[in-house]
Design brief:
Layout: E1 15-18, E2 22-27, E3 38-44, H1 45-50, E4 56-63, E5 80-86, E6 89-94, E7 101-108, E8 112-116, E9 118-123, E10 127-134, E11 138-145, E12 150-157, E13 168-173, H2 177-180
Parallel strand pairs: 4-8
Antiparallel strand pairs: 1-2, 2-3, 3-4, 5-6, 6-7, 7-9, 10-11, 11-12, 12-13
Length: about 190
């Protein structure tokens, strides 16, 4: 970002999301569970498209529902690789390493530092690595199931309960990681014009 007055820190960028006015870069990877504060960078979409970025807002957060003490690297639930815009908020989907409950966190698009707590959860039988939401009732998640990293896709649709993950969830197995690779992102196509 040459026109930005300071470079953006790159620790563990995991996902991007977009709405009609902003691009969001998620620097919230936390594989070892040792990061205390995570970041999302918000850039004006018109500046990104014009190649003249004038400012970058930083949304910093921590998991307010995190347990105290040292977390074991292979069995913590404070990692996130998936983010989507839903209504007026960013929604983060945890990459749980224990159990099969993916926790869902909401974060309004404001600058500053925020403590976030899980607002909801869904059963997925694996680890989520990418997400997107379209409208009020459609969602797609991608991820893999350890220990063989078998890729899958989850479609969420038909919800009238206030969030697309509360509707019908359909899981689609995508074959072998040797055939598909490890899926890390997914998005719905949007035509903003």
């Amino acid at each position: 970002f040459p026109s930005h007055d300071r470079p953006l820190s790159l620790i563990d960028w995991e996902d991007i999301a977009v709405d009609s006015t902003h691009l969001y870069l998620g620097d919230f990877g936390n594989n070892t569970g040792q990061r205390d504060t995570l970041s999302i960078y918000r850039l004006a979409l018109n500046e990104v498209c014009n190649g003249s970025i004038q400012s970058v807002d930083t949304l910093r957060f921590w998991y307010a529902d995190a347990p105290t003490g040292v977390l074991p690297a292979d069995s913590h639930n404070l990692d996130c690789e998936a983010m989507a815009v839903y209504r007026d908020s960013l929604w983060l989907f945890s990459k749980n390493r224990v159990g099969n409950q993916v926790r869902i966190y909401g974060l309004r698009g404001l600058s500053g530092l925020h403590g976030i707590q899980a607002l909801d959860s869904i059963q997925v039988e694996g680890q989520i690595t990418g997400a997107d939401v379209l409208g009020d009732s459609s969602m797609v998640l991608v991820g893999y199931t350890p220990p063989f990293y078998t890729p899958f896709l989850i479609l969420g649709f038909g919800s009238d309960l206030g969030a697309p993950w509360k509707g019908c969830l359909r899981r689609i197995e995508l074959g072998s990681v040797l055939q598909m690779g490890q899926l890390e992102a997914i998005c719905f196509y949007r035509d903003w014009e």
